[in-house]
Design brief:
This protein is mostly beta strands. The chain folds into three domains: 7-79, no CATH class; 83-135, no CATH class; 136-179, no CATH class. It is 11% helix and 28% strand. It is built from two helices and nine strands; from the N terminus they run βββββββββαα. The protein has helices at 165-168, 171-186, and strands at 7-13, 19-26, 30-32, 39-46, 73-79, 88-93, 99-104, 111-115, 123-124. It has a four-stranded antiparallel sheet, with no helix packed on it. Strands 3-4-5 form a three-stranded antiparallel sheet, with no helix packed on it. Strand 6 and strand 7 form a beta hairpin. The protein is globular. The protein starts with 6 loop residues before the first strand and ends with a helix.
Length: 188
């Protein structure tokens, strides 16, 4: 599976305590078990809590299995290779009569990402196979169509349809979205 390198920026502190960039570039820690298989890019691995942030050691330069070590953490990107091709679009009706595209793995049909009109913006599905409860949502949307026996936590904002991104998204996320949308908007 051919993939674009993942840029990794690692910061630290110099002897005077000033923040410095220790590493900036593609992570050299890329592994692939077999030709055409999944590609793993290690970005960061810790072995203790609290984390020792001293020195300039490359914390991804280690061999490790799937789970982190006791009191440790792993930050990696796994690019799952579809076994028979690229994700296939499936048109799904929306409440307003329009359709949205959900792109599914052609082998197992799991939803990989969704597209809501603009090809520049894709909503990628996040999760983990070994601990599904380890990834929790920041917000629940389209709750108007949920089944009545599903209970949502009161501590997480919930909306029957969608929400005002300018109210809930961090400023940095809004800036990224604006930079993506700008090229399409500039010709109007």
């Amino acid at each position: 599976m051919e993939k674009k390198p993942t840029r990794r920026i690692v910061t630290g502190h110099d002897a005077s305590g000033k923040a410095v960039v220790l590493m900036d570039g593609p992570s050299p820690h890329v592994r692939q078990r077999s030709a055409g298989g999944n590609v793993l890019t290690m970005l960061w691995v810790t072995d203790e809590m609290p984390v020792d942030m001293t020195g300039s050691k490359d914390r991804a330069d280690t061999q490790i299995g799937v789970p982190p070590r006791l009191n440790g953490s792993i930050f990696r990107i796994v690019d799952f290779a579809p076994s028979t091709g690229i994700p296939q679009p499936v048109a799904v009706p929306r409440d307003d009569g329009s359709k949205r595209q959900i792109f599914r793995c052609p082998t197992c049909q799991v939803a990989v990402f969704s597209q809501y009109g603009r090809p520049e913006v894709r909503f990628v599905r996040g999760g983990t196979l070994d601990q599904p409860s380890g990834v929790t949502p920041d917000v629940h949307i389209f709750t108007g169509s949920k089944l009545p026996w599903i209970t949502l936590p009161a501590s997480t904002p919930a909306f029957e349809v969608y929400y005002d991104m300018k109210t809930l998204w961090p400023a940095a996320s809004l800036e990224r979205l604006e930079s993506i949308m700008a090229p399409a908007d500039s010709g109007a």
